[in-house]
């Protein structure tokens, strides 16, 4: 039982960090528009493209999880999150680079948005006898 609790704890913490990447730029949209010298709406689109990555990858990841399981998707998502976060941090001055990093952050977030609920159901199943 404790192993299940550790797995759920790790997935919960990772999910919080992964899903917090979506709205994290909303607070700094005005600051980023001054830094990149772009319109407010172009900077606000960075959150939209993040969600586009989540949506497109979510469809593929859910289907893949049904066929091959969820573990590899959580590992792949974590890899994408780490790499794309480093990429986004290093893209100072390049809007296009930051935009693509945000899309890949969305792809990395998709397993944590779509598969954690199913994983909890798989780990803590309830047998009902009538």
SSE diagram, text form:
Layout: H1 2-20, H2 29-36, H3 40-68, H4 71-89, H5 95-114, H6 116-123
Helix pairs in contact: 1-5, 1-6, 2-3, 3-5, 4-5
The backbone outline, from C-alpha atoms, is elongated
Could you spell the SSE succession in H and E letters?
Answer: HHHHHH
The number of E-state strands comes to: 0
What is the rounded Rg? 17 Å
The number of helical runs is 6
- How many strands, which pairing sense, and closed or not: the largest β-sheet? none
Low-confidence stretches: none
Q: Mean pLDDT score, rounded?
A: 90
Straight-line N-to-C gap: 25 Å
The proportion of residues in beta strands is under 5%
Estimate the helix proportion, in percent: over 70%
Quickly give the structural class: mainly alpha
Structure, explained:
- This protein is mostly helical and 130 residues long.
- It has helices at residues 2-20, 29-36, 40-68, 71-89, 95-114, 116-123.
- Helix 1 runs antiparallel to helix 5 (95-114) and helix 1 packs antiparallel against helix 6 (116-123).
- The mean pLDDT is 90.
């Amino acid at each position: 039982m404790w192993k299940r609790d550790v797995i759920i704890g790790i997935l919960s913490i990772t999910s919080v960090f992964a899903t917090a990447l979506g709205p994290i730029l909303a607070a700094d949209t005005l600051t980023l528009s001054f830094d990149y010298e772009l319109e407010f709406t172009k900077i606000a689109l960075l959150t939209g493209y993040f969600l586009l990555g989540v949506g497109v990858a979510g469809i593929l990841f859910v289907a893949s999880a049904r066929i091959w399981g969820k573990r590899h998707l959580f590992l792949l998502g974590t890899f994408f999150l780490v790499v794309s976060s480093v990429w986004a941090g290093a893209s100072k001055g390049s809007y296009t680079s930051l935009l693509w990093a945000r899309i890949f952050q969305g792809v990395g977030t998709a397993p944590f948005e779509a598969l954690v609920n199913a994983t909890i159901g798989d780990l803590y199943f309830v047998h009902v006898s009538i």
